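Predict structure. Input: NPP1 domain protein, 244 residues.
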Amino acid sequence: MTILSHFLYVALGFTVATTCNASPVTGLHRRGTIASDEIVGFPQTVPSGTTGDLYLAYQPRLKVVNGCVPFPAVDAQGDTNAGLKPTGASDGDCSSSTGQIYVRGAEHGDKYALLYSWYFPKDEPSDGIGHRHDWEGAIIWLFGANSTSTDNILAVCPSAHGGWDCSTDGYTLDGTSPLIQYYSIWPVDHQCGLTSTVGGTQPLVAWESLPTVAQDALANTDWGAGNVPFIDANLDGNLGQATF
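Output follows.
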């Protein structure tokens, strides 16, 4: 063996040994996704002025009857929630979170709509039934975008199995906030509905206040059986379905 060959042999052996004995790198995640219990959402972020006031005034209160509580779906870097397999308890690994609620406002015909939405890491009526990722929400129809009074509300439409159940007089308010519940009647998947119970709130973030990287992530991620209701591809269709 030449001196050069001996040197290369020793160097290679040292490299392999160092690599094999090194401590495993922690904190890695599949590119573009973050575990549900690690993702960090946005603080309350809405436009200033009338639009932000409108978003905040009609933010629903959500009562979670069973299943997961809302979680952030995306972070400031554009990483998205990895979601959870529908195994174990219906609220297994998803019973506690600061959460997030998203909102997007739009004129539609002669009315103004506020589409609020929550993300849940899984939709699991019971062990083994359901799917990873769930998006639900509520559309609040208003006479116009310049008032935050209760009289400005035309209808409240909770999401239910791909559609919207609208009511013009059967909803309950806490101040100006509609009361919504999230629930499943076994063995059917979860949905939103009206309730008279005051639920909780989550940090509100407006679509137009999200960084572009977060908007793109919401629009381009494969959410499986879940559909983000307020992205460009889905907004008009959802507003068109929410009739009353």
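The first strand starts at residue 33 and ends at 34.
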